[in-house]
């Protein structure tokens, strides 16, 4: 189970990101946060216990090490 999750991305120039809070349910935790973003397209990635991860629930853009999730805010 992950202990520390941050969402990083183009929304802040990949600088600080946003810490995500865990919600525990039995043997697993679901991490979430609220970002106040203007409409647009953002590339994001998750830093899970110090390792980069993609979400299988979001579309991806790019290739190889430059592969990121795409977050569209309308």
Automatic annotation (TrEMBL):
Q: Where is the AMP-activated protein kinase glycogen-binding domain?
A: 3-73
Q: Which CDD domains match?
A: E_set_AMPKbeta_like_N
Pfam families in alphabetical order: AMPK1_CBM
Q: Which residues cross the membrane?
A: none
| SUPFAM superfamilies in UniProt | E set domains
- Gene Ontology cellular-component annotations: chloroplast
Q: What is this protein called?
A: AMP-activated protein kinase glycogen-binding domain-containing protein
Instruction: Identify the species of origin.
Output: Cocos nucifera
């Amino acid at each position: 189970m992950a202990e520390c999750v941050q969402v990083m991305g183009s929304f802040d120039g990949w600088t600080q990101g946003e810490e995500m809070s865990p919600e525990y349910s039995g043997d697993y935790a679901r991490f979430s946060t609220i970002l106040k973003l203007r409409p647009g397209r953002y590339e994001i990635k998750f830093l899970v216990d110090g390792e980069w991860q993609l979400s299988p629930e979001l579309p991806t853009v790019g290739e190889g090490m430059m592969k990121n999730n795409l977050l569209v805010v309308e």
